[in-house]
C-alpha cells in the first residue's frame, strides 16, 4: 500500500484543525518540589494527516499524548479537541469522550488473552453498550478489512506480533473514532511487519475525517508521516513536513 | 481475562472448592453430632414431657429419682399417663469373656414407651418376658463385627444372662456405645442395687392440655424439673455446646477453612490483577469505566465461585454418601441450611477478594499503558 496523499508543507496545510494545543505545561510533584516536564507546548494537529511525535526518551512525548488523549490532566494551557475544551471536561466526561472519539494503539498491543481477536477488537463497542454479538460481528468486518480474515476467532497467543498489532488497530477503528493515538506501534515488530502496520495507519490517515497521531522512535517509519513534531526536553523544537525531516535526519 | 491463565483459574477454583468442602463437611458433621446428642430424646416420640431431678443438665447426666415420684407425677392434673424410664451405662460380657460397655435403656414393662421404634428383626414384645433384650443394629455390628444380623445372642450383665431377641434401627446417640433395651423391671434386676434407680418419668399430656402449662404444673406440684421434649433436647445440645471443647475444635477447623479459602482466593485474584494491570489500564484508556470493569471481573468471579462451590458441595455429598453405612457416621448428613449458609460465606469471600484486588485497578492511572 503506497502513500497516496500528497504531503503539504506545514505552513501550506489547509486541513481543518483536530487538536489545538496552546501553551500547555505539565508539572509532576517530586518530593516537595514540582518538576516541569512540558513547557509551553503549542501546536495544531490536523484532520486527514498522520502526525508523528518524535524525540529522545524522556523528552515528554508520552506525557503529551496522554494529555492530548484526555488520560492525563495538564497543569496549565488550553487544549481544544474537535472543538471541545479538554481542560473544561470532568474526568467522567473525558472517559465518555475517549470512548466515542479516540482509538488507541499501544506498543505491547495489550489484548485480553482470554478473548478472541474479534472479541478484543469489539471491546470499545461493548464498553459503549453494544451487545457482544453485534459488536463482535462489526469487529470481524474491520478485521477483514485489514487483512485478518481467517484469524478472527483466534486467541492472541495464537497470533504473530504483527497480527496482534492488527487486532489492536481493529480495536482502535471499530467504533469509528476521529482521532487514532498510536504509541510506538512498530517498536515490537520487525521491519517488514512494521511497514505493513504503518501502511494501514497511513491509509487510515488519508480519511479527511480522521487524524492519526503517532509517537515513535523508529526512524524507519518517518516517511509514512505527513508532519513530524520533534520534541526535546519537554518542548517542541521542530514542526516539519515529513519529507524535510527525513531528508535532514534520515 | 482470568480464564486465559489456566493455572490461576484452576487455583482459584481449588481455593473455593477447598473452603466449601471444609465448611459444608465440618459444619454438617458438627450439626449431626449435636443432633445425636438429642436423638435419644426425639426417639421417644410418644412422650410430651420428660420429668427429672432438678439438678439434671443434660440427657447423659442422670440423677436417680425416688420411685414415689412416679406416683406424684401421675397425680398432677392434665397428665394422661406417666411411665418410668431407666438410662445408664453398663458392661456386658460375651460368652468368650470379652466385655463391652453399652447404654442400657429400661422401658415401661406394659406400654413399652421409650422402646426403639423401628424394628429390623425379632419380636418387639419379647422385652415383656424376663431376661430378654433388644439391641440396635449398629451396636450389634460394633459388638460382633463381621457376623450377620441375628437374634438369640446371649450376653451377661452383672451375672444376669440376657438374650438378644430383637434388633432395631435407631439413630446413634452422642456416645457410640451399643444401645441395649430391656424392660424397666429387667433393668432394675440387672443393675447394681442403689437407693433410687428411676432416671426419668415420661409423661403424656391429656387432650386439650398444653405441654407448656403441664410442665409448669408438674414442676410446681412435685418440685421436679419437667421439660418438653424439645426443651430437653435443646438443653442437652446447649450443654455440649457450652461445657465441652467440641464446638471450639470444629469452629477452629471451619475458621481455618474460611481463612485458607479467603487467602487462596484473595491472593490469586490479586496476582491476576497485578499481572494484568496493563490490560486494565488499556481498557480504562479506551473508555471502560470502573463499574464496567467491576462487572466484568464479577462475572468471571461468579463462574469461578460457582464452579468451586459446586465441586465443594459435590465432594461433601459424595463423602456423606460413601460413609452413609459406616457405623461411626450413621445418620450424619448434609443439611440444606449448611449448603445455603456456605453459599453466602463463599460469596462474601469472593466479593471481598475481588474488591481487595480491584482497589488497585480503580486507582489505576490509565496513562501507565503508555509507559514502557
Bulk shape of chain A: globular
| Helix content range of chain A | 25-40%
| Cα-based radius of gyration of chain B, to the nearest Å | 29 Å
CATH class of the domain at 16-111 and 177-249 in chain A: Alpha Beta
**What best-fitting shape of chain B do the alpha-carbon axes yield?**
elongated
CATH superfamily membership of the domain at 16-111 and 177-249 in chain A? P-loop containing nucleotide triphosphate hydrolases
How many alpha or pi helices of chain A?
8
Rg of chain A, rounded, reads 18 Å
Average of the residue pLDDT scores of chain B = 89
Write the CATH fold name of the domain at 16-111 and 177-249 in chain A.
Rossmann fold
Gross CATH architecture of the domain at 16-111 and 177-249 in chain A:
3-Layer(aba) Sandwich
Mean pLDDT of chain A: 88
> Helix/strand-derived class of chain A?
alpha/beta
Which two chains form the greatest contact, residue counts included? Answer: A-B, 31 and 24 residues
Structural class of chain B: alpha+beta
Distance between the termini of chain A: 22 Å
Please count the beta strands of chain B (DSSP E, at least 2 residues each): 10
